[in-house]
Design brief:
By secondary structure, this protein is mostly beta strands. It is about 0% helix and about 40% strand. A hairpin with a 7-residue loop joins strand 4 and strand 5.
Length: about 750
């Protein structure tokens, strides 16, 4: 069932991006040039008259909305919208709202101040910055932000103040502003609004659901072919980048009276307000973004007949005529931005009651069922990041390819809703962006007119639409699709980076990670590509049986005599990032090698750095019963300081293994038939030690510097003293402090 207004202005397809403007903005106003902001939010925020009762379950959040108009004849480009605290373009704080003290109430912020809270979900305050893109002449685009507000102060007192009169109610400000380019001129507009925390009563007669439809004029019941109140939830398929259309049918707003004089014109506002989320704890606004609203409200006039509101992107109504009640329908359009997310709506309404009084429903749509619950499915878009340059050297270019596919059947990513498909990437550390590379060699998906490519020189804090000069200043790139990506279609974007020469990083691996999202949000999928930086150094040697054969010495950790090599043993090579000589979570696995028939292994073309060669003592190809006679890893410096003019070759990383136990069996040399035979099995531990149970009085711990008499002491490689539970050739040492 559709009830969108036929008069809804068509929203032009536009690529959405936060744009950094290169010249100073003119002082903000509203309107500013052809840019105009219209706030579509109520003046009041609901605080239950019984809020100090533990049983209250009144709304604590609301969507703030604004329409951004282009009143001129030129397209407004590079439009970005913000909510928070505006300070004439300097020290603006999107997502952080103006605060003030309101005695005698006790605020939770420093100075006993109060402020609104941005409910950006997992995106936090970054959600307060929205990329709007292009607004065509004569059109508008709408943005919704979810905020929460205090109901009681830090002392537990209702924020409508000591009295029920509106004069001492807590009020809070918020700013909405926008930046744009108008015919080459940078402009900005801003508005400041005040919301007041009003004492309101819960009127259960004004129900969201369930209620009856007996107050709905019969012709409207027939018009919509809906004779009972209901909530419907119609997803395209529930996956990321699609939409959920949630419809609440036959609200009962009740009689709408005078209410407050919120706008100061000395005339009661006779207002009503519809909202989808009153409890922000059940709803992640970054996982499900509100992008559109549609409403159909029937006001039954006292003079007979009805006045009908059919509106888009309007949830607040005022100056409603004298009436005997109002009923309505509402549609909320949400776009899932993340896979596997869940959320539950908690819709509510507020209407004017008597003079200086307003009321709200307190049921949050009791019995919504699946109508108000969302579950986002697996993303239907897949991305693969790759490079043809698996190895490189200083001064060389590394080309990256990001291929993406809509493997579903539904078109995804709607630029008109601010959610086009976006590919995001950053220039990897140790490289510089290659001029022009992000623009050339891209492949558009079928049905997509093109990409808009955006560049950041400050790691995504701001963006520009043209490649900067010098291009080496680029830190991040984004590709925005101009149209939905159709089911089954795919595309490719590419760019290149040049390895800095001389290469000064001590990590000889270049890792590049790309992400994909709908709109300028945190990517819902990542993939990366790795390039190993080549040098001239060599590391290696062998893995061998340290059994003393051929004149060698048993278990001495040296390959001597005719001791054989062990084949098929995997040797891993790590970059010792923290240079502590031990393999830990911060180190990078660079590559691995498998020993040959003679037990030898070799890593060549290694760049200057500090490395660790390591073997796994549980490798299945180590002979059964053999244990390590050497360390299980070696820390090796291959000209870490890059001070040598010649390559470094280290062939001393030998790993020895020998049988710790020897089994000898003896029996009677000769026996007669029918006589008992006795066998003796002797087990010998060929390594040092008495084979008894070992007792340790010291275990790995942090050093207690304040202790004057303690056995606590600092350990080197403390994890080696207690993991794993079997002999592994690893060890830690410490010198006890005190007695």
């Amino acid at each position: 069932m559709e009830f969108r207004s036929k008069n809804l202005r068509s929203i032009a397809a536009g690529l959405l991006l936060y744009i950094s403007l290169l010249s100073p903005f003119v002082e903000a106003a509203n309107p500013s040039g052809d840019l105009r902001i219209e706030v579509i939010t109520a003046y009041n925020l609901i605080v239950d008259s019984n809020v100090e009762s533990p049983s209250t379950y009144a709304p604590r959040s609301a969507y703030m909305g604004a329409k951004f108009y282009n009143d001129g004849v030129n397209d407004l480009t590079n439009v970005v919208a913000f909510i928070g605290s505006y300070n004439n373009g300097t020290n603006d704080t999107p997502g952080i709202y103006p605060s003030h003290a309101h005695a005698p109430l006790v605020g939770p912020l420093p100075g006993s101040e109060f402020a609104l809270t941005h409910e950006g979900g997992s995106s936090g305050t970054a959600d307060a910055t929205r990329n709007v893109g292009t607004i065509k002449a004569g059109e508008y685009k709408v943005v919704y932000w979810l905020i929460s507000y205090p109901n009681v102060d830090a002392a537990g007192h209702a924020v409508w103040g000591p009295s029920v009169k509106p004069d001492d109610d807590l009020w809070l400000n918020y700013d909405i502003w926008a930046k744009a380019v108008d015919a080459g001129i940078n402009i900005s507009a801003d508005v400041t609004r005040t919301v007041t925390m009003r004492n309101e009563i819960s009127a259960m007669a004004n129900k969201i659901y369930p209620n009856g439809a007996n107050k709905v004029p019969s012709q409207y019941l027939a018009l919509f072919n809906q004779y009972q109140p209901t909530w419907t939830n119609t997803p395209e398929d529930g996956s990321v980048g699609t939409s959920f259309d949630v419809q609440g049918v036959w609200y009962d707003l009740g009689n709408i009276g005078d209410g407050f004089d919120n706008n100061g014109d000395l005339v009661p506002d006779k207002n009503a307000w519809l909202q989808p989320v009153g409890d922000p704890t059940m709803f992640d606004s970054s996982a499900f973004r509100l992008v559109r609203t549609h409403a159909f409200v029937v006001v039954k006039l006292k003079t007979d007949g009805e006045e009908v509101y059919i509106v888009d992107d309007q949830l607040y109504f005022e100056n409603i005529p004298e009436n005997n009640g109002a009923v309505g329908l509402v549609e909320y359009v949400f776009v899932p931005m993340k896979a596997g997310a869940t959320a539950t709506m908690s819709p509510y309404q507020e209407v004017a009651s008597g003079f200086d009084n307003e009321k709200f429903n307190g049921d949050y749509g009791a019995g919504l069922g699946t109508g108000g619950s969302f579950v986002s499915g697996t993303a239907r878009v897949d991305m693969v990041k790759s490079t043809i340059n698996l190895t490189s050297s200083p001064g060389s270019n590394i080309w990256y390819t990001i291929a993406f596919t809509n493997f579903g059947t539904i078109s995804l990513g709607d630029p008109t809703m601010g959610t086009p498909l976006v590919i995001q990437d950053s220039i990897p550390t140790g490289t510089l962006y290659l001029a022009g590379s992000a623009i050339s060699s891209n492949v558009r998906p079928g049905g997509v007119a093109g990409y808009n490519i955006y560049f950041s020189t400050n790691h995504g804090s701001s963006w520009i639409t043209t490649e900067p000069s010098p291009a080496t200043n680029v830190t991040d790139i984004q590709w925005w699709l101009s149209d939905k990506i159709q089911g089954g279609s795919n595309g490719i974007v590419r760019f290149a980076a040049t390895v800095i020469s001389p290469y000064t990083s001590k990590i000889p691996r270049i890792l590049n990670t790309a992400g994909i999202s709908f709109g300028s949000t945190t990517p819902f999928q990542y993939d990366d590509a790795t390039t190993v930086l080549l040098g001239t150094n060599v590391l290696g040697d062998n893995v061998f049986v340290d059994n003393g054969s051929g004149g060698g010495i048993f278990g001495n950790g040296l390959r001597d005599g005719t001791e054989a090599g062990i084949s098929n043993i995997t040797v891993k090579l790590y970059v010792d990032v923290n240079t502590n000589g031990a393999v830990d979570s911060s180190d990078i696995l660079l590559t691995s090698a498998v020993t040959g028939t003679n037990g030898n292994y070799l890593f060549t073309s290694l760049y200057d750095g500090r490395y660790i060669a390591a073997v796994d003592d549980t490798d299945a190809d180590i002979p059964s019963g053999y244990t390590s006679t050497t360390s299980s890893w070696f820390s090796i410096d291959l000209d870490y300081a890059s001070a040598l003019a010649t390559p470094v070759t280290n062939l001393a990383a030998d790993f020895g293994y020998a049988p710790a136990l020897i089994l000898h069996k003896e029996g009677t040399n000769s026996v007669r038939e029918g006589k008992q035979i006795t066998y003796t099995l002797s087990v010998t531990n060929r390594f040092a030690g008495n084979g008894g149970i070992q007792t340790y009085s010291l275990w790995a711990t942090n050093y207690n510097s304040s202790a004057t008499y303690s056995s606590l002491a600092a350990w080197t490689s403390p994890s080696n003293t207690y993991t794993p539970s079997y002999p592994d050739g690893k060890f830690g040492t410490c010198i006890p402090a005190g007695g």
